[in-house]
Design brief:
The chain is an alpha+beta fold. The chain has a domain of 66 residues: Alpha-Beta Plaits (2-Layer Sandwich). Helix content is 10%, strand content 19%. The chain has two helices and four strands; from the N terminus they run E-H-E-E-H-E. The strands form two sheets. A two-stranded antiparallel ribbon has the order 1-4. Strands 2-3 form a two-stranded antiparallel ribbon. A hairpin with a 2-residue loop joins strand 2 and strand 3. It is elongated. The N and C termini lie far apart (47 Å). It binds iron/sulfur cluster (2 copies). The site of one iron/sulfur cluster has 14 residues, from helix 1.
Length: 98
Amino acid sequence: MKAEEHKLTAKELPVGDILEAGTAVAFKTGAWRSIRPVWNAQKCIQCMICWISCPDTSIIVKDGKVTGINYDHCKGCGICAVECPKKVCAITMEAEKK
Ligand code: SF4
Ligand code: SF4
């Protein structure tokens, strides 16, 4: 007869993937992406809507201006591309290259 497997209880399961405080910067989530946002500097009017909207703080801002995307942490959710004003369309989503 096969020995019974020990199943973890709810109290024994770890909470999330990050167990220590302050490790979110080191936990690179960019590998989860299947599509990536591509920012066009020429079209961008610096309205900062993408920066406000990004759930992963992956819009890079320097000296008060958007300068690119942090692909180490961007998950490719596409919110920035949807929220970028349609008349500008400075962020497009493209298939991730392997
Ligand atoms: S695709 Fe999502 S995670 Fe990546 S920069 Fe845009 S809003 Fe942020
Ligand atoms: S939402 Fe679009 S136009 Fe506005 S700062 Fe971001 S990329 Fe530029």
